């Protein structure tokens, strides 16, 4: 039992610090000038699961010979508050990585939210996205599923299992239950498929793998894979291993993020 009592009105304790500098207000906190490299696409990101999605897509485009998708990749260190600088906030007012500027157009286009960046690049270069309405819709089903589901894994299970200042049974049980349900969902879906959309590798795989593939492979949250009995999800594990063997995926995980200052 906790001795915490919910107050009538929540008030922000400004003296209480947290690892990621979270505050209950949006907007920039300081002036910032982000570097702009020589390539058409400027990506400001970090090697987290959401950042890895975009890195994988860009490396897959390179693997496919799409020269127009060359990019510069810069590190936004969320533990140092880079995401709250004025230039980054002008690209993504939500202060979350990844964010991208496309300078190949007459007027530069800002793109934020990881799934939207994947979709933007897929449509711009006509790669890793089905052409038929039915197949594209099925892919979008899973792309949007990932966006809605992953916060339970990252902000829910991952936070309380790995980052919270002390262990709490109720939230760990709650988010473990949901995480395992999602793993079981994917395992059932992949029982007769090589990829999320069947035989075709798409941006849905790129979106889902950094979260769920890396989780069952033991690459997220310390020993979480053992805790979740991830080896029981054999179809999901085979899919995860299949994706991890792709040359572009291997390169994406090893990319060097340039300093912004």
Automatic annotation (TrEMBL):
<dbReference type="Pfam" id="PF13410">
    <property type="entry name" value="GST_C_2"/>
</dbReference>
<dbReference type="InterPro" id="IPR004045">
    <property type="entry name" value="Glutathione_S-Trfase_N"/>
</dbReference>
<feature type="domain" description="GST N-terminal">
    <location>
        <begin position="42"/>
        <end position="129"/>
    </location>
</feature>
<dbReference type="InterPro" id="IPR036282">
    <property type="entry name" value="Glutathione-S-Trfase_C_sf"/>
</dbReference>
<dbReference type="Pfam" id="PF13409">
    <property type="entry name" value="GST_N_2"/>
</dbReference>
<feature type="domain" description="GST C-terminal">
    <location>
        <begin position="110"/>
        <end position="261"/>
    </location>
</feature>
<protein>
    <submittedName>
        <fullName>GST-like protein</fullName>
    </submittedName>
</protein>
<dbReference type="InterPro" id="IPR010987">
    <property type="entry name" value="Glutathione-S-Trfase_C-like"/>
</dbReference>
<dbReference type="InterPro" id="IPR040079">
    <property type="entry name" value="Glutathione_S-Trfase"/>
</dbReference>
<dbReference type="InterPro" id="IPR036249">
    <property type="entry name" value="Thioredoxin-like_sf"/>
</dbReference>
